[in-house]
Amino acid sequence: MNNLHNIFPASGPLPADWRKVLDEIGQATSTNPVLSGGALRDHFLGAPVKDLDIFIPWSMDALNSLNEYLEGRGYARVQNIPPSCEGLGEVVAVVGYSKFGEIDLNVIFLDNAVDLSPLGVAQRNDFGICQIAAWINEFGGWSFDYTTAFLTDALGNSFTLLRQGDEARSLRRFERLKEKYPDHKLVTPHITPTTNLLPI
Asked: Which domain of life is it from (predicted)?
C-alpha cells in the first residue's frame, strides 16, 4: 500500500481531533471504528471537510453506550443520514451527532454479516473516489486502506460510479458534489439504457 502522503504531498497529516474521536468511539462501544468516505477524500484532495462517516458493527449495546458517551460529552443527536447510506440493506442504523465547535459525526452501524474490514467498508462506497478507509492501528497511529479505483479517480479527476442497485441516489449525490469538485467528470460504467434510474 503506497503512502498516501507521498501521493498527495499537499494534504498533511489527518487532524488530531479525528483520531481522538475514533479512539473515544472505540472505547465507548468496544469496537474498532473505521473512518471512510468523504472526509478522507476531501482531506487528501484539499477540499473542505463537512463531517466524519464512522463505521462500526451493529449492536444495541454499542448504540446505547455511544449515545450515553457522546451525549455526556455535549453532543446532540440529530437526524443527519448521509445520502450514501440511507436505505441500504447492510446499514442497520445511522446516528448523527452534532456539537458546537466540533465536526459533525455520522456513526453508521453495519450488519455483522457484511465485510467489516477497513477495505470491505471502503469498497461499499458508491464512487471510486470515496473508496478509502482509515483506522487507528495497534501502535496508536493511522493506517489506511483503499481500492485501485480510489487512486484512479483521485488522480484522474473523476467520480466513477461502482455500486449498482441505487444509481439514482448516487447520481443525485454527484450533482451536489459537483459544487465542491467542478473539474471532476462522472464515469458510469454500469449504467445502460435499461438501468432503472427512477427516484429512490
From this structure: Bacteria
Q: What is the pTM of this model?
A: 0.89
HSE toward the beta carbon, residue 12, CA cutoff 13 A: 7
Average pLDDT, integer, range 35-40: 96
Task: Give the whole-angstrom CA distance, residue 131 versus residue 135.
Answer: 14
Cα–Cα distance, 18 to 71 (Å, whole number): 18
Paired residues of 108 in beta bridges: 55, 94
pLDDT at 35 over 80: yes
CA torsion 56-60-61-62 (nearest 10°) is 20
| 69: number of Cβ within 10 Å | 15
Q: Identify which of 68, 26, 18 has the alpha carbon closest to the alpha carbon of residue 43.
A: 18
- Is 114:120 a contact under the CB 8 Å cutoff? yes
Q: Is the pLDDT of residue 200 over 50?
A: no
Question: C-alpha grid cell for residue 157?
Answer: 479527476
47-105, pLDDT tens digit by residue?
A: 999 999 999 999 999 999 999 999 999 999 986 555 455 556 788 999 999 999 999 99
SS3 132: strand
